[in-house]
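> run fold 2-dehydropantoate 2-reductase
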Amino acid sequence: MRIAVWGGGSLGLLWTARLTPLFPEAVLLVRTEKQRDWIRERGILLTRPSGEKERIPAAVRWIGEVVNESFDCLFIMVKQRDLREVAESLTAFSRPPSLVLLWQNGLGQDGPFGSVLPPGVLCGAVTTEGALREGPGEVRHTGEGTTWIGPFSEELAHPGIAAKLMGKLKDAGISIEWENRIVRRIWEKVMVNCAINPLTALLRIPNGGLLHSDDARFLMKSIVEEAVSVARAEGIALEAEDMLKRAEEVCRKTAVNRSSMLQDVERGRLTEIDWINGEVVRRGARAGIETPVNQTLVRLIHLLEMRRDPDE
Ligand code: KPL
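> ok
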């Protein structure tokens, strides 16, 4: 089975390191020739949660040289802002992949692919695994977790490909589950990200820091209540109390971690706010639901983004 991982960020490197021993034809697609050359020369250096290091030789290509290709399965592991470009590039493949997995945080990741892929190909992936990119080909697996994969549409066009992928990953001991209600899982993760990411980025504190302040906890509750109302309007029946508990549990379990949004702000990068709280605000407006707390957070993060160094 020909698998490609699109994106050389933390999760892209981690999953390439995992897939390569299982699928000898697996290939990583990266954005720059520099990263391609680095990985070609040295492979991927994976640091396991135990601290053990392993160098895994990996096939790697630069996106610019991928034309007339065909893959059975494509892991798309770039940020949401890059998805439109990825969707357009898929037209350069000789045939569409049979299975496409979208790994992005936030909501709306399937939008750009509606017109470029046949029905029954697109799946979402939600993961609680932690990974940190430490160099062009270096990744630290910071925390074990579970991954759920499931279709955005009712029926898969190529169920055999999905079954083969799941079977191999499970046999290799990777914690992965098939999830027919993937949109619900995506919303559940969005709740956690809405509650944790902007507050940690604004306050510049690790996730656990939110639990030490009544004000932060009050804001987390308000954020989640608004987002749950929007989810319910879309037919996803979540409970605000459960979602708040879940977000607080993540704060406890990842107390020393810096959220991805805080890391983006610290590195002067644009954040994913528009696809997390921003998407809640947009969908709320569409459904006639007010989301003032989420809206304020979106504006504050936009202001932080304006202060970043444009050359970074
Ligand atoms: O997914 C995360 C992120 O940082 O984006 C959380 C769950 C908040 C963990 O840090």
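The mean pLDDT is 96.
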